[in-house]
Specification:
By secondary structure, this protein is of the alpha/beta class. It contains 11 helices and 11 strands. It has 2 domains: 139 residues, Rossmann fold (3-Layer(aba) Sandwich); 139 residues, Isopropylmalate Dehydrogenase (3-Layer(aba) Sandwich), CATH 3.40.718.10. The radius of gyration is 20 Å and the shape is elongated.
């Protein structure tokens, strides 16, 4: 099991090297990240975008692109469409956002002809390495779905379980979060959390342990859990792997608190697509982008092995 991004990077090196298609690659941090990812043996990039700008930016920051394939397309939408088609056609394993608006990028992901749509809900999975926690934490959804329905939460769990299992967590523990640990009809998220738990017990949600509703402290802090009434009867007692948020507000607030107030490492990908999609913020550091590429690589390998079974 990978308990850190350092261990995850070691796991990546045991997999066949992946191909990463980058849409509108003329971005400083993106070029730094894909170069680092290539040097670390994670993935070889295909850079789709304005070749002149790509080469100028690369030269300015000391990135060698001589061993990277560049496809020269100046128009953003056309570049994104070509880049996603590479993944759609099997010529690349992963898709990454470069210097273009998220809306344009997502349109390419959802393109009916050459995109990566599956007909299922898309969701954002963020993986954190946080000081003081002895495992990776998988947070979802913190950036994509505003108010997921019960059925969408089921799909989110399934996607995130795949990511956790790709990282070596064979039976991830999923905590549907709420403000309280008991079902309250006046608090719909607690009712939905209980339903997800029941579906897990019935075998509808597989390959994981779901126990909700849970408060944040009971989900991630064993010491706090010792003082909670009825905690001993729970299947998750401070040792959750996956934190399922009731809505984007809760998820995004927690995400930003962790990023701003802890010395964490993180990586993010979009799931529910035919292949992993690296969807990071323009403000994300090079390290976060490299971690996201590594995460996408292990998930791509995991999905490939599943298809071969």
């Amino acid at each position: 099991m990978s308990a850190s991004f350092e261990e995850l990077l070691k796991q990546v090196k045991l997999c066949p090297k992946k191909i990463l298609s980058v849409a509108v690659a003329q971005d400083t941090r993106v070029l730094e990240a894909v170069s680092d990812a290539q040097n670390k043996g994670i993935a070889d990039p295909i850079l789709v975008g304005d070749e002149e700008k790509i080469r100028d930016i690369a030269a300015g920051i000391g990135v060698d692109v001589s061993n990277m394939q560049i496809i020269d397309i100046v128009n953003e939408e056309e570049a994104a469409k070509r880049a996603v088609k590479l993944v759609h056609d099997g010529d690349a394993d992963m898709y990454m956002k470069g210097e273009l608006p998220s809306k344009t990028f997502l349109r390419s992901v959802l393109d009916k002809e050459v995109g990566l749509r599956t007909g299922s809900t898309l969701s954002h999975v963020c993986v954190f390495e946080i000081p003081g926690i002895n495992r990776l934490l998988f947070l979802t959804d913190v950036a994509f779905l505003p108010y997921p329905t019960l059925e969408q939460k089921e799909q989110i769990i399934n996607y995130t379980v795949q990511v956790a299992r790709a990282c070596g967590v064979q039976l991830p523990k999923v905590a549907p979060l709420a403000a309280v640990e008991v079902v309250n009809e006046k608090m719909p998220v607690t009712v939905e959390a209980a339903q997800l738990t029941q579906w897990n017990l019935e075998g509808r949600i597989k390959d994981c342990i779901v126990d909700g509703p849970l408060s944040m402290d009971l989900a991630i802090d064993p010491t706090a859990a010792e003082h909670k009434e009825g905690a001993a009867e729970r299947r998750i007692v401070g040792d959750a792997d996956i934190l399922l948020f009731p809505d984007i507000h809760a998820g995004n607030l927690v995400y930003k608190v962790i990023v701003r107030f802890t010395k964490c490492k993180n990586g993010c990908i979009l799931m529910g697509t035919k292949a992993p999609v690296v969807l990071t913020s323009r403000s994300d550091t090079k390290e976060t982008k490299v971690n996201s590429i590594a995460l996408a690589a292990v998930v791509a390998e995991h999905l490939k092995k599943q298809q071969e079974v």
